[in-house]
Design a protein that fits this description.
Layout (H helix, E strand, L loop, with lengths): L8 H9 L2 H21 L3 H20 L1 H14 L2 E6 L2 H14 L4 E4 L3 H5 L2 H7 L3 E4 L2 H8 L16 H11 L9 H18 L2 E4 L3 E3 L4 E6 L3 H7 L3 E7 L3 E2 L5 H13 L6 E5 L13 E7 L3 H5 L15 H4 L4 H4 L10 H12 L1 H4 L11 H5 L6 H13 L18 H14 L2 H13 L25 H10 L1
Parallel strand pairs: 1-10, 2-3, 2-4, 4-7, 5-8, 7-10
Antiparallel strand pairs: 5-6, 6-9
Helix pairs in contact: 2-12, 3-12, 16-19
């Protein structure tokens, strides 16, 4: 597996563009997902109503986030759920590792959890002798391959049927190569079933955490999430602090928005509501349920009146499916857990601008992401704000992102300062424009990255000001 990093974004993007198989895989997948979303919202008025409701709910809940987190903790504890707070990924990993050690769990079966990817849980647990087995089929495939997810809801979207068959052939004993999708899925199920039965600990993400009732809501299509959260004796759920909602009544509108925006479904196959461990007389469920609430840079975004909108995200992936950059280079090129438009505005809070300054400029600012976001996150506006922060030191009104000003250039600053001075002094500006027109033949053909895919610009031989002046003279 290649070692992807946001610091090598440009090289990784160039390699992805040169990979015809990857381009073909993404072309078909993105067309399919866009068509499904379009079919899920046949009535523009209904789409507007769904998005308006989802945006209002997320903004209301975020405005009360500290109080809702305290209420969630209190009600979870009433339900018998043990609540843990983690300031960063290292602390979250320590908490989960301690639980696994306390229960002597050599294997943890995992439902889909992007937050566990965010903190690098699998690698950290493996360092201490605990094997984390991905049970979502897409995650299972990329884990077998030593790969990483390239999409937040469809982890193996970058692979075709033949590549999946090759992965199974290389890693699963007794597998007969096939490109029949049903046979491939059944193979994965047979392998995973025994692990569900014997694992002592299961781990999941959380789509919505309801403060009013202390309920953890989990959406899925494969049933593996339900197996991970009910069969093992211990269930650990991990989520970012922004996933809390105020009331149980907030969940259905968000549920409708996320499923239709993600893969064009009215509802998912499974909707799990977890209210605590197994109670007396119940036939299934874990003996212990733990909830790990992760900050990891989210508080920094929360305290900024503009960047707080990043936390509205409900992780549907629609912005990625419609982004002209992501759809051509895929997720791995970004080198971050969260790729695409949403990753460009989330990752700076998680990793700092030192590592992600190239990502915030990897956008056409076409607005396709904002047009389909079910909670109306103004992603292009936030990208422009992050571009400014990457170039300049923090404003005093905001808690600074790590690495602000890292992309600033003294030469660029001097050049822009010189242009600003000339632009505010008309005589100097028009004289310079006239000279540029006369010397246009000396313009170099290589202007660095700008001319890697563009022709070098040349000043016009006659400026607009000169043309208009001549017209007046006539």
């Amino acid at each position: 597996m290649a070692d992807f990093s946001p610091l090598r974004f440009h090289g990784q993007a160039k390699a992805a563009l040169a990979d015809p198989v990857l381009r073909e895989n993404f072309r078909g997948a993105m067309d399919y997902l866009r068509d499904k979303r379009r079919e899920a919202f046949p009535d523009p008025a209904e789409e507007t109503a769904v998005r308006d409701a989802a945006e209002q709910i997320r903004q209301r809940c975020l405005s009360k986030l500290p109080a809702l987190l305290e209420l969630l903790e209190a009600n979870c504890k009433k339900n018998g759920i043990q609540v843990h707070w983690a300031v960063d990924g290292a602390e979250a990993n320590r908490i989960i590792l301690d639980i696994a050690k306390r229960h002597a769990a050599p294997t943890v079966v995992k439902g889909k959890s992007m937050v566990s990817e965010e903190v690098g849980l699998n690698h950290e647990m493996a360092r201490h002798g605990v094997n984390c087995l991905e049970t979502d089929m897409g995650e299972f495939i990329v884990q077998l391959d030593g790969d990483t997810p390239s999409h937040i809801i469809m982890p193996a979207i970058h692979k075709n049927k033949q590549e999946v068959s090759d992965t199974f052939a290389a890693n699963l004993d007794g597998f007969t190569p096939t490109t029949d999708v049903d046979s491939l899925i059944q193979t994965g199920r047979r392998v995973l079933r025994e692990h569900f039965r014997t694992a002592r600990m299961g781990l999941s993400g959380v789509n919505f955490a309801v403060a009013e009732t202390g309920t953890l809501c989990l959406l899925e299509n494969e049933g593996n999430g339900r197996m991970c959260t009910t069969v093992p004796k211990v269930h650990v759920a991990i989520t970012g602090i922004e996933k809390v909602v105020e009331w149980l009544a907030d969940v259905p509108p968000l549920y409708s928005a996320v499923t239709r925006s993600a893969i064009g479904q009215r509802i998912t196959t499974y909707f799990n509501m977890i209210n605590g461990p197994r109670r007396e007389g119940e036939l299934d469920g874990p003996d212990e349920v733990h909830l790990v609430l992760l900050d990891n840079g989210r508080s920094q975004a929360y305290r900024d009146e503009e960047l707080i909108k990043t936390l509205q995200c409900i992780r549907c992936g629609a912005c990625m499916n419609h982004c002209p950059v992501y759809t051509r280079i895929g997720g791995h090129a970004y080198g971050t857990v969260y790729p695409g438009p949403i990753g460009k505005i989330i990752s700076p809070h998680l990793l700092g601008l030192e590592q992600t300054s190239d990502l915030v400029t990897a956008s056409t600012l076409c607005g396709a992401c904002a047009d389909v976001c079910p909670v109306r996150i103004p992603i292009p506006d936030l990208l422009q704000r992050l571009r400014h922060d990457a170039k300049h030191q923090a404003l005093k009104a905001h808690e600074p992102l790590r690495g602000q000003g890292v992309a600033g250039s003294r030469i660029e600053k001097m050049a822009m300062g010189g242009f600003a001075f000339a632009a505010t002094h008309p005589r100097l500006y028009h004289t310079a424009a006239g000279m540029a027109g006369k010397l246009r033949g000396l313009m170099p053909s290589n202007l660095g990255p700008w001319t890697s895919c563009r022709e070098a610009p040349k000043p016009a031989p006659v400026s607009l000001n000169q043309i208009m002046r001549r017209r007046k003279e006539k």
